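Subject: AhpD family alkylhydroperoxidase structure
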Amino acid sequence: MSTGGGVAMTNDGNGYLELTQSVSKQLATLREDLPDVMKGFGDLARAATRDGALDRKTKELIALALGVAAHCDACIGFHVQALVRLGTSKAELEEALGMAIYMGGGPSAMYSANALAAYAEFTAGA
């Protein structure tokens, strides 16, 4: 993980805002080219994140921990962005990252640092 000019950087050198925007553009192409698959994925995402026994914030914290464990920068970006929109505090984020580190060891610690960088980037304008 590196930083450039105070902007959080992913492992490939992009900021998380830039990364999520870039991936969103490519996902738009997939929605055009694979409408049934992407509709199914969207429906699954909406059903999985809907408030139920767990609220949406809790579900997004779980998704972030899984993204960290999977070493997925785009997952980190999208789920941290959603968590910021849901009003997640840094302390809440860090506790979820603590669980990811507990379950995933050193590699999850490195990606947890990336998630903190994404949080800093997405909350910088708030």
